[in-house]
Q: What sequence folds into this?
């Protein structure tokens, strides 16, 4: 299956997402702040990053923009998983390079389905 990096500063949400994605057969790594996430993305080159917006040290939009600016990470897919729910937030996330957007609170089933759909894209 795929290698996925979960970037979430809330340990309970992180544990839930990691558990569900591992249960779906993926190799899952985690990070709890934006700088650690970017370092892990560069070193591990995951197929997919499940990325929170509001993170310490570097927010999710900044991480997303840095990934999109790095040609070596061109194939990395990004699913924003965030409590930000305004239309303008959605627009900003997609403008930064997010491939998918899922609002908290979220269904773990929907998370797995959207993850599978993103990974299936060519």
A:
């Amino acid at each position: 299956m795929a290698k996925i990096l979960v970037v979430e500063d809330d340990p309970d949400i992180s544990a839930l997402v990691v558990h569900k994605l591992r249960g779906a057969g993926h190799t899952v790594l985690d990070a709890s702040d934006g700088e650690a996430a970017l370092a892990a993305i560069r070193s591990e080159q995951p197929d997919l990053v499940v990325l929170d917006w509001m993170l310490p040290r570097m927010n999710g939009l900044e991480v997303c923009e840095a990934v999109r600016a790095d040609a070596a990470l061109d194939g990395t897919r990004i699913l924003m998983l965030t409590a930000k729910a305004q239309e303008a937030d959605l627009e900003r996330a997609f403008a930064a390079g997010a491939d998918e957007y899922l609002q908290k609170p979220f269904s773990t089933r929907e998370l797995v389905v959207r993850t599978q759909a993103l990974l299936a894209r060519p």
The mean pLDDT is 97.
